[in-house]
């Protein structure tokens, strides 16, 4: 508290506001606590209440329950860590949570017909009474008369007494009762057929139009099911191409009707189906410029380097040819986020994992990629602005570049409300710039030369379900020279406003909108040439511009573009800021000129009010 004359002043600690520091600012924002931790607001900070199994200031650490060696018994094979739990894999012959119970395989008396059971390490053995045989003494006799061999095994009588079974490949055991091989391991069923393993064999359950032992015979009349071989006299059409098969799959899944429904339908998330009308790729086709000889979208982010796809057009093979980029050290992450791009170099955050401290340590001028990247996020504008730094760090980490919000000429950030036409969904649209200063300094680094390439990489990452951000990104796109969205309603308040009852789609203005020098609108120094951006051609029936009938009509949006430009460029002034005897402001002159225009176009000015404030 600072004593003043007949007053006092409070210097509030960090995280508080108000005359007497009575307001505690809520420091809990989206992403404050990881792994579903509960954020508890404190004065000047926050605290995370972690769910069981997680520790750390932000619940970022997963407790490894296997470190205490709970599976230490002799019957344990290994310990598997789970979320707030663990599981012991037991050796053969042991069971229990900690594999502490040795199984007695003779406890269930498996030996039949008076056989004597002996427990073994991984099973049991039966000593059969005279005349009986088999694993559990289930067969009587010493010859093949009882057909003891199973699964088409061949019985051979031995000299003297007894028999033996010759088993077919894939089966084994005394009576060929065991399945010794998984015939489905080689994936013999083609065209998405479902393989069922059998003793010494396999069976394919095939989709419609594909039959045969391996679903390899094209038959338009086949409705699907067990893939039996076709009859010899069946006439088949020639097998379709791979492209035809892919298109048929899209048709079968109804992908045409699902495209553009603002939801990623996974069965349509293929190149042939247009990635579900780009619903699964944030509104763009990431590989439209990829000309590699292999299908790069099938090997994107698969953990193997495919050099044919390792180029900007094919999105650097999803960074499979680069070393994995680790997240920012959890110990420093909160500090680095709080001080990100604040104009002060924090050397502990100046690394690739922590997004180069937002380039606060870089003295060189920006090296921007061509264009800007528009990103639509389905969240409230106020919430988005509150978490903007976290969003920029997430996108930058995904792209391995530094991103920032593009600014308008007056310095305002290009972040605006957004909504789906005809839908209730709302969000924000932000225009981002990509700064390659650190990327281009690294020899051989894979940098994005344009915002379109970067947008394609994010779209492809969404296709692979590998976006490492919690923000609900709906759409991305590379754009050139982005402009603020047009207003849905005429501006009002302390700006150039226009209220009208004329037809909502048409406005007329006079061909001589631009007045002669000395009598026209005055533009402030450094302001853009607003009216020169709206040229109005003289009609063919107007000789030299003298004829009053030489007027042109333009779409109503051009008028609103003029209004938006006036609002953005500061050509308006408040009435109470004008000096005595000062000339009319640009906004006042503009309203006068627009009123004259409406009169010349035959409009009743009583129905049209043009004001400035």
TrEMBL record:
Record bears the keyword Hydrolase: no
UniProt-listed InterPro entries: EGF, EGF-like_Ca-bd_dom, EGF-type_Asp/Asn_hydroxyl_site, EGF_Ca-bd_CS, Growth_fac_rcpt_cys_sf, Notch-like_dom_sf, Notch/Slit_guidance, Notch_dom
Location within or outside the cell: Cell membrane; Nucleus
Disulfide links within the chain: 12-21, 50-59, 71-88, 90-99, 128-137, 167-176, 206-215
Pfam families: EGF, NOD, NODP, Notch
GO-annotated molecular function: calcium ion binding
Keyword Nucleus: yes
Domain of life of the source: Eukaryota
Residue ranges annotated for the EGF-like domain, each copy included: 1-22, 24-60, 62-100, 102-138, 140-177, 180-216
Residue ranges of every copy of the LNR domain listed in the record: 250-289, 290-331, 332-366
GO CC, one annotated term: cell surface
Protein topology in the membrane: Single-pass type I membrane protein
Keywords: Activator, ANK repeat, Cell membrane, Developmental protein, Differentiation, Disulfide bond, EGF-like domain, Glycoprotein, Membrane, Notch signaling pathway, Nucleus, Repeat, Signal, Transcription, Transcription regulation, Transmembrane, Transmembrane helix
One GO BP: axon guidance
Family classification: Belongs to the NOTCH family.
Protein name: Neurogenic locus Notch protein
């Amino acid at each position: 508290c600072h004593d003043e004359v007949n007053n006092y002043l409070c210097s509030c600690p960090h995280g508080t506001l108000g005359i007497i520091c009575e307001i505690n600012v809520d420091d809990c924002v989206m992403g404050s606590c990881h792994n579903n931790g509960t954020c508890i607001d404190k004065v000047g900070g926050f605290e995370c209440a972690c769910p069981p199994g997680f520790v750390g200031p932000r619940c970022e650490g997963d407790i490894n329950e296997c470190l205490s060696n709970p599976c230490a018994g002799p019957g344990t094979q290994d310990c598997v860590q789970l979320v707030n739990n663990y599981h012991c894999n037991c050796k053969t012959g042991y069971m229990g949570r900690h594999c502490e119970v040795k199984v007695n395989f003779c406890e269930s008396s498996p030996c039949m017909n008076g056989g004597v059971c002996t427990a073994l390490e991984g099973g049991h053995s039966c000593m059969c009474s005279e005349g009986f045989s088999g694993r559990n003494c289930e067969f009587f006799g010493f010859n093949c008369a009882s057909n003891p061999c199973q699964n088409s095994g061949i019985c051979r009588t031995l000299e003297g007494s007894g028999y033996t079974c010759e088993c077919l490949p894939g089966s084994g055991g005394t009576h060929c009762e065991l399945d010794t091989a998984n015939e489905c391991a080689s994936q013999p069923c083609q065209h998405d057929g479902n393989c069922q393993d059998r003793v010494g064999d396999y069976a394919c359950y095939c989709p419609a139009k594909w039959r045969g032992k391996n679903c390899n015979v094209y038959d338009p009349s086949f409705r699907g099911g067990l893939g039996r071989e076709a009859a010899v006299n069946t006439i088949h059409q020639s097998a379709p191409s791979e492209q035809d098969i892919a298109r048929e799959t899209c048709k079968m899944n109804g992908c045409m009707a699902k495209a553009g429904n603002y939801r990623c339908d996974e069965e349509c998330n293929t190149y042939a189906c247009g990635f579900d009308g780009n619903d699964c790729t944030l509104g763009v086709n990431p590989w439209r410029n990829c000309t590699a000889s292999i299908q790069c979208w099938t090997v994107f982010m698969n953990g193997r380097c495919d050099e044919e796809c390792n180029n900007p057009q094919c999105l650097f093979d999803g960074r499979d040819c680069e070393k994995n980029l680790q997240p920012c050290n959890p110990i420093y992450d909160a500090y680095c986020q709080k001080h990100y791009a604040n104009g002060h170099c924090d050397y502990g955050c100046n690394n690739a994992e922590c997004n180069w401290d937002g380039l606060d340590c870089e003295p060189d001028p920006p090296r921007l990629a061509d264009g800007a990247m528009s990103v639509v996020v389905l969240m409230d504008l106020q919430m988005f602005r509150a978490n903007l730094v976290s969003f920029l760090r997430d996108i930058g980490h995904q792209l391995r570049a530094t991103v920032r919000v593009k600014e308008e000429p007056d310095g305002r950030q290009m972040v605006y409300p957004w909504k789906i036409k005809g839908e209730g969904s709302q969000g924000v649209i932000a225009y981002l710039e990509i700064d390659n200063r650190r990327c281009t300094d690294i020899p051989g680094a894979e940098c994005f030369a344009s915002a379109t390439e970067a947008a394609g990489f994010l779209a492809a990452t969404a296709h692979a379900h590998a976006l490492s951000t919690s923000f609900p990104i709906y759409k991305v796109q590379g754009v050139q020279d982005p402009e603020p969205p047009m207003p849905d309603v005429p501006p009002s308040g302390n700006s150039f406003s226009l209220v009208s009852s004329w037809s909502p789609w048409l406005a007329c203005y006079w061909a001589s909108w631009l007045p002669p020098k000395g009598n026209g609108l005055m533009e402030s120094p450094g302001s853009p040439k607003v009216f020169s951006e709206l040229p109005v051609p003289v009609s063919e029936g107007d000789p030299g511009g003298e004829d009053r009938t030489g007027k042109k009509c333009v779409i109503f949006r051009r008028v609103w573009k003029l209004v938006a430009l006036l609002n953005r460029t500061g050509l308006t002034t408040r009435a109470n800021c004008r000096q005595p005897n000062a000339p009319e402001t640009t906004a006042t002159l503009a309203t006068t000129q627009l009123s004259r225009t409406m009169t010349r176009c035959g409009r009743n000015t009583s129905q049209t009010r043009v004001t400035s404030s």
